[in-house]
Write a structure and sequence with these properties.
Length: 342
């Protein structure tokens, strides 16, 4: 094994010195390998981007005319004798893990991931490796997800109940990933689905790849009476804004892993919380790690210290590293949502 680590955490991002390439760097670099389209992992300013081909239209929508190369899942590409490949992360559409191999040593960087099949993204694929870099956004035993089917039954029942009371349902979710997952499983037989501009624009980028129900963009011309009994999908930044005033009377809800905690719902003045995350829960993290066969684990963004301590108790060589990734924290950062996606 080489004396220096194959991947190193630097002030610009995760760096492979042998290949002179960065993985999801948070500062501008010459060459960046990108796991997925969320703003904390795919940033503007790199000279060259390499990503999964389905992620290209997503990051181009966000970043503009960039120099980007697309790869298929499992397709290997070599940079300075280091072999790279993308593998499904199951986080959102186009999301990938990055496998890095050099002189028999294999590292896997997950980016963000989940192990439940959402029916939109390609399901998570465990990759055998020596060192596994894992997020732990929800790395506490308190986080345990119900099945997606059960959650969407609850969401559709909530919408139907609000309709019977003559109210508009407003459901908040991050504009890339969460919003499309909500749209995919809403029951259009209940009523009409309205969307905020940030969500409508991003969904239109993804529509050629995924079948969604019909949606209607909210505009200035949309009348107050049009909303009654229907549902509006909006980013968290819309909550409390003048944009939703004409939707009165309405009931609000948020779909996020953070809705596990009642306090999170109260702090955000949300009427209803649905626990739905595009990240692993506690059991999902442990399952994914076990299936890699890795002995060395590096934890990033989330409950890193608690989770890595537990992994060490299980016998893993586990440590933490600081990054500028936020996981699902981006869903509750309304300032960022507004700046990046609207």
């Amino acid at each position: 094994m080489p004396s220096r680590p194959l991947l190193k955490f630097t002030e610009k991002g995760i760096y492979c010195a042998v290949a002179k390439v960065y993985l999801d760097p948070w500062k501008p670099v010459d060459k960046a390998i990108i796991t997925h389209g969320h703003a904390d992992h795919s940033r503007w300013g790199h000279k060259q981007y390499i990503t999964h081909h389905t992620n290209i239209p997503i990051i181009k929508h966000r970043l503009g005319d960039i120099n980007v190369t697309g790869k298929a899942y499992g397709e290997t590409f070599v940079i300075n004798n280091v072999t790279f490949s993308f593998h499904p992360a199951g986080h959102i559409i186009g999301s990938s893990q990055i496998r890095v191999e050099h002189k028999g040593e294999i590292w896997v960087f997950t980016g963000d991931y989940k192990v439940e099949n959402d029916g939109i993204s390609i399901p998570f694929e465990p990759i055998k490796c020596h060192t596994f870099i894992t997020e732990c956004t929800f790395g506490l035993p308190a986080f345990k997800w119900a099945s997606q089917k059960d959650v969407f039954n609850d969401i559709n029942n909530w919408w139907a109940e609000n309709k019977s009371e003559g109210k508009t349902s407003i459901l908040f979710g991050y504009s890339l990933g969460k919003a499309q997952r909500l749209l995919k499983y809403l029951n259009p037989e209940i009523g009409k689905i309205y969307t905020h501009g940030a969500i409508e624009n991003m969904t239109n980028v993804i529509r050629p790849m995924v079948s969604f129900p019909e949606t209607t963009l909210v505009t200035r011309e949309t009348k107050k009476e049009d909303f009654i009994g229907n549902i509006v999908i909006a980013p968290p930044s819309a909550h409390g804004s003048t944009w939703i005033r004409k939707m009165v009377p309405y009931v609000t809800a948020s779909a996020s892993g953070w809705m596990t905690f009642r306090g999170a719902r109260r702090r955000r003045a949300i009427d209803k919380g649905f626990v739905l995350s595009d990240h692993c829960d506690w059991d999902g993290l442990l399952t994914a790690i076990n299936e890699t066969g890795a002995t060395k684990i590096i934890t990033t963004h989330g409950y890193t210290e608690i989770f890595s301590k537990y992994l060490r108790e299980l016998g893993y060589d586990a440590r933490t590293e600081k990054t500028q990734y936020e996981g699902e924290l981006a869903e509750i950062d309304t300032k960022k949502e507004s700046e990046v996606l609207e």
